[in-house]
Amino acid sequence: GDIRVLEKHGGKSGDWSAPG
After folding, report:
1. What are the beta bridge partners of residue 5?
2. For residue 18, what is the DSSP state?
3. Helix, strand, or coil here: 20?
4. Model-level pTM?
5. Helices (H) and strands (E) in the chain — how many of each?
6. Is residue 2 a contact partner of residue 15, using CB atoms and an 8 Å limit?
7. pLDDT tens-digit series, residues 6-16
8. CA–CA separation, 14 vs 6, rounded Å?
9. Which letter, b or e, does each residue of 1-20 get, where b requires 16 or more Cβ atoms within 10 Å of its Cβ?
10. Cα–Cα distance between 20 and 6 in angstroms, integer?
11. What is the DSSP secondary structure assignment for residue 14, as one 8-state letter?
C-alpha cells in the first residue's frame, strides 16, 4: 500500500507496501 518496499511476502512482485 505504501511506497516503502516491494511487498515480496505478498506474492505480487510489484505490489508496493510498507515493511511488516
Report:
1. 17
2. -
3. coil
4. 0.10
5. 0, 2
6. no
7. 656 555 556 66
8. 6
9. eeeeeebeeeeeeeeebeee
10. 11
11. T
CA atoms within 13 A of residue 4's CA, in its CB half-sphere = 8
Lookup: cell for 12: 505480487
Contacts of 6 (CB under 8 A, 6+ apart): 13, 14, 15, 16
2 close to 17: Cβ distance less than 8 angstroms:
yes
> Distance from CA of residue 15 to its chain's centroid?
5
Strands (E), the chain: 5-6, 16-17
Residue 9 has a pLDDT of 59
